[in-house]
Write a structure and sequence with these properties.
globular, two-stranded antiparallel ribbon, 3 helices, single chain, Aminopeptidase, 11 strands, alpha+beta
């Protein structure tokens, strides 16, 4: 059985995840630290024993139709041999929980895999391109966070 963990405790796996991202998409914006004064959550990893199964990273970017920045999922990657096992969905749910605990009210994603997010109650907010922008308004126990 695998675990979903914060990468701050798994630096070796974080390096592997970074290499996966680079081989899949090339160089992407940083997924740690801060951007535009907003702290970027550390990546979340799926690990089984000593094996990295997948990961999810964040970035800061302008919200759709706004000049204000928000937190976006900018990388979600599961090792090919571990796909179709629910790991991606579990990573997204963990990202939502982490965001709620850090007082983030909404998350965004730009993806060509919108069905994965729609199953988890994300809403399409821009479908003018091949890939879609989706948003998840985050609540805790049915109440919007203050």
């Amino acid at each position: 059985m695998y675990s979903i963990v914060s990468s701050e405790y798994e630096s070796r796996h974080l390096e592997i995840f970074g290499a996966w991202i680079q081989s899949e998409w090339g160089i992407v914006s940083t997924y740690t630290g801060t951007a535009e004064g907003i702290p970027i959550p550390v990546p979340i990893l799926a690990i089984e024993g000593e094996e990295l199964l997948g990961g999810l990273g964040f970035t800061v970017f302008a919200k759709p139709d706004s000049k204000k920045n928000g937190i976006w999922i900018n990388t979600l990657l599961v090792a090919p041999k571990h796909r179709k096992k629910g790991i991606g969905s579990q990573l997204i749910k963990a990202a939502e929980s982490h965001a709620i605990s850090t007082k983030v009210h909404e998350l965004f994603v730009y993806t060509d895999k919108q069905g994965l997010y729609e199953k988890l109650d994300w809403t399409i907010v821009d479908d003018t391109k091949e890939s879609k922008v989706l948003r998840k308004t985050l609540t805790k126990c049915g109440q919007a966070e203050d």
